[in-house]
């Protein structure tokens, strides 16, 4: 449990705005120290009367010529520096010494990693060991010119940490759950397929497995599980120098809520991939990631609810009673994840006792796949895109109304002139009628397209439709 956990992408942390994050039910506040550029994570509880500091304000102040970022509690204005030290209590005379009890409880170690992924060390900051950050060394050590990062995203799931881990580490579900939205296809899966274990050390929480492609001469996928969050796929593409990394980190938020961070990376990418990346805004990449991820939560939540209904026993044995694992190597990685939790789950939060309100009811897929709640609300790129699409749609509808009215008005005038015996309508009238009609149709089409984009940020059924199309 005392490990590194990813908590946010730097691009989702707004300057001088505290962000609330949760890990293992521990509420923390995250912000960037403007003076040093370091990301700060501390307990989200004000020592005064326990208000959340993430609802407060951040500002820069200057003392003795030095600038420092200060977090001010929104309730009574106590102020804290980036070390969690209380530096000012507004109602107390300045000369009075502020006791250590007024400092924030815990300040955590953080690390800004590849592509701006912020990790925090959940534990004693003096023991934070950066060599333990779960990242592929090959990618971290590669030269900037050799690697390309794309689709840096995240998503919340209303299920436990262990259930989600089991899903992410299982490559064999992709052909079915993501059929139509991913690369694999349920119609071409080999019966002899599966996963081989290359190396494992479950005591240390490390497994290296390998899955061969349909045609094994065309490369393979290496799967690395590194305790307690990381599942990394490294895909070798035939004889080329290129390699794709599909990185994910599964993070426990609370008993029945988890968050997955995803990052795709290319080592030695073809030029066309760089070009596509250059043209792809972040919100667009997120719509693709969400399209793929829409295939899982509806099923996973119901699977999780069933295990909870059978036996509320933490990471324990419900799965042993309820699962009939496939023979051969199909479910190898599922076994490894479950063995890991059998071995280490007792030392993690939520092992026992189980919270009495642990969920065992099914949640509608419509609710589980609410993209606004599970992604957009915390994503700066998608929030901005949704805002712009909403405004654009309103403008397009207003424009369509005005141009439609102009066309209608010119039509009425034209009809009146015809009744009055005029042979031809004046040119401006004809132009207004024709132009207004065309513009109205175009703007209505634009409004429809923007509405479609808005559904990609909120809720859409297209993953289900693609998956069930053939
Ligand atoms: S609760 Fe934070 S200043 Fe009072
Ligand atoms: Fe997004």
UniProtKB/TrEMBL annotation:
<dbReference type="InterPro" id="IPR036922">
    <property type="entry name" value="Rieske_2Fe-2S_sf"/>
</dbReference>
<keyword id="KW-0150">Chloroplast</keyword>
<keyword id="KW-0809">Transit peptide</keyword>
<dbReference type="InterPro" id="IPR017941">
    <property type="entry name" value="Rieske_2Fe-2S"/>
</dbReference>
<keyword id="KW-0408">Iron</keyword>
<keyword id="KW-0472">Membrane</keyword>
<dbReference type="InterPro" id="IPR050584">
    <property type="entry name" value="Cholesterol_7-desaturase"/>
</dbReference>
<dbReference type="Pfam" id="PF00355">
    <property type="entry name" value="Rieske"/>
</dbReference>
<dbReference type="GO" id="GO:0046872">
    <property type="term" value="F:metal ion binding"/>
</dbReference>
<keyword id="KW-0411">Iron-sulfur</keyword>
<dbReference type="GO" id="GO:0016020">
    <property type="term" value="C:membrane"/>
</dbReference>
<dbReference type="Pfam" id="PF08417">
    <property type="entry name" value="PaO"/>
</dbReference>
<feature type="transmembrane region" description="Helical">
    <location>
        <begin position="429"/>
        <end position="447"/>
    </location>
</feature>
<keyword id="KW-1133">Transmembrane helix</keyword>
<protein>
    <recommendedName>
        <fullName>Rieske domain-containing protein</fullName>
    </recommendedName>
</protein>
<keyword id="KW-0560">Oxidoreductase</keyword>
<feature type="domain" description="Rieske">
    <location>
        <begin position="4"/>
        <end position="109"/>
    </location>
</feature>
<feature type="transmembrane region" description="Helical">
    <location>
        <begin position="395"/>
        <end position="417"/>
    </location>
</feature>
<keyword id="KW-0812">Transmembrane</keyword>
<dbReference type="GO" id="GO:0010277">
    <property type="term" value="F:chlorophyllide a oxygenase activity"/>
</dbReference>
<keyword id="KW-0479">Metal-binding</keyword>
<dbReference type="GO" id="GO:0051537">
    <property type="term" value="F:2 iron, 2 sulfur cluster binding"/>
</dbReference>
<dbReference type="GO" id="GO:0009507">
    <property type="term" value="C:chloroplast"/>
</dbReference>
<keyword id="KW-0001">2Fe-2S</keyword>
<keyword id="KW-0934">Plastid</keyword>
<dbReference type="InterPro" id="IPR013626">
    <property type="entry name" value="PaO"/>
</dbReference>
